[in-house]
Amino acid sequence: MAQRLTQKALDTGIYHGYFLTLLIALPLQLIGHWILMILAGIAGGLTVKRYRHALIAGFLGVGTAWSIIFVFLNVFAQAYVIGEFFASLIGLPGFERWIVSLSILIGGTLGASGSIVGRAIAELVQEIRSSTDAD
Length: 135
Prior knowledge:
By secondary structure, the chain is an all-alpha fold. The chain has helices spanning 2-12, 14-31, 37-45, 51-76, 79-89, 96-134. Helix 2 runs antiparallel to helix 3 (37-45) and helix 3 crosses helix 6 (96-134).
């Protein structure tokens, strides 16, 4: 059963989309503009075959990338201290872990949105190619 699911995931391109999104999202995070996570999602969405798989690959790819960065920041730069600061700004002291988790969810949502756009671009290009081949 597990082997069949793995083969199906390989056939749909979800692994390729996930790893491509992850590998592009990691360096884009270092630039510091969070909106660029949509570009990572678009790149991952170009490699999958269905919208549902694009959504999963984009969300997990960027979510994993942001999780890796937050773990790194927690070890070396005390990310939870920064999270505690933002939590106290909005009147929720002691909710720093929720702030970090919410940030990861926002990043995953950006990746999922981008991957759906990437899949739509891929289908548009396929449609244009098939219509020009028919003419």
